[in-house]
Amino acid sequence: MTIFLLLLALLGHALLWIGVVNRIHALAVPYKFGHLCSAFGLVCLVTVPLTFAYWFAWAGIGATSGSVSWQQFPLATQLYLGVCWFSLVMGIGSWTWRGALRRPPKILRSHHIRSIHLGRIESQDDRHPTTPSQFAHHFVAHLPANDILKLDVTQRAVDVPRLAPALDALSIIHLSDLHFTGWVDKSYFQKVVRRCNELEPDLVAITGDLIDRASCIEWIPDTLGKLAARHGVYYVLGNHDIRVDTDRLRNTLGQSGLIDLGGRWIQIDVRGEPVVLAGNELPWIAPAADLRSSPPRTPDGRPLRIVLSHSPDQIGWAQGQDADLMLAGHTHGGQICLPLFGAVFSASRLGVNYVSGIFHAPPTIMHITRGVSAELPLRLNCPPELSRLVLRSVRQKTD
Asked: How many domains does the chain have?
């Protein structure tokens, strides 16, 4: 029985240190320090059980009797085992709620997914010598079971309680976490952009982590600069974007036709209706937009408020701003998802409970996309995602 409890503690130990790593990546710490802390957490994940096993062998615990007595453990070890068991109980509770008990929010009217492999040659044009081929991607992208080039085109229709009838069926393409590194070739992102344009959106929203390598800023005019939407393409930056010259990045994005929402709000006119758009790049770039100076709500709920945030951790800010819709990324949907269990890693203080999808935290609806790519071009059981949201008016539905 004691050995069984120790094995359960081992699982709790793994959940504990994975949770530590997840939350480190949710903090506004310097890039190198964050990676150092993450490396320390992963080292502890491996070395603590090995150290424990070595101590068992060295102390000869259970060697003669074949059993283990709790009195043989030092107090500090007993306390740590208790923490591990608590971590396991919390993990099981979270998994049960996430995988078995939680249901899609009532505001989600429909949800459809179409999968496309963008690593394959699609036409004669792709065989032209001057066009980057599928073999321009890093070899890791072609490993078996790697989903990095398998794009899910996800379409969700969402009921927005205060949406004016004139804005019914407003469509938004939500992109995030493109991670231009050069490991996934520019041709992949050009294909993603073409898919976006085929959907003819009203708005395009990009929620950060565009660039990891400064040389890839030059890709923007041929990729994101080709995005087309009836009422504009908008963006905020993420934590990876601050690794490059953000002034140069914003200038290039602006010259390519994208509109910066970092730390500010604007009002646009859509179908004769006012729509307020705002951005939040916290905790990495301050300040967040303050909507107290934006047009106040009318009795019928106008204007619609849509906010962009790189991290889903800013949901409290969005609620405080009385936002109708918050778009976020950063989590990559977990990037590595285990069968049955789901996501393990999620760069959020919320852990894996809000790793991707639609969530309703009144008055705000939050959409978290899995993102278009990743810094490390490896995704397991978690394809990248191009998300199209269609906002539906509840008033239009009941008329």
From this structure: 2
Read off the pLDDT of residues 284-340 as tens digits, 9 standing for 90 and up. Answer: 999 999 999 999 999 988 999 999 999 999 999 999 999 999 999 999 999 988 887
Residue-number span of the structural domain to which 33 is assigned: 2-101
Three-state secondary structure string covering the chain? CHHHHHHHHHHHHHHHHHHHHHHHCCCCCCHHHHHHHHHHHHHHHHHHHHHHHHHHHHHCCCCCCCCCCHHHCCHHHHHHHHHHHHHHHHHHHHHHHHHHHCCCCCCEEEEEEEEEECCCCCCHHHHCCCCCCHHHCCHHHHCCCECCCEEEEEEEEEEECCCCHHHCCEEEEEECCCCECCCCCHHHHHHHHHHHHHCCCCEEEEECCCECCHHHHHHHHHCHHHCCCCCCEEEECCCCHHHCCHHHHHHHHHHCCCEECCCCEEEEEECCEEEEEEEEECCCECCCCCHHHCCCCCCCCCCEEEEEECCHHHHHHHHHCCCCEEEECCCHHHCEEECCCEECCCCCCCCCCCCCEEEEECCEEEEECCCCCCCCCCCECCCCEEEEEEEEEHHHHHC
Indicate which CATH number applies to the domain containing 287.
3.60.21.10
Whether residue 382 sits in one domain with residue 342? yes
Same domain for 265 and 118: yes
Domain boundary pick from 101, 136, 168: 101
Per-residue pLDDT reduced to its tens digit, 208-224: 999 999 999 999 999 99
Domain boundary among the residues 80, 101, 122 is at 101
Q: Are residues 166 and 295 in the same domain?
A: yes
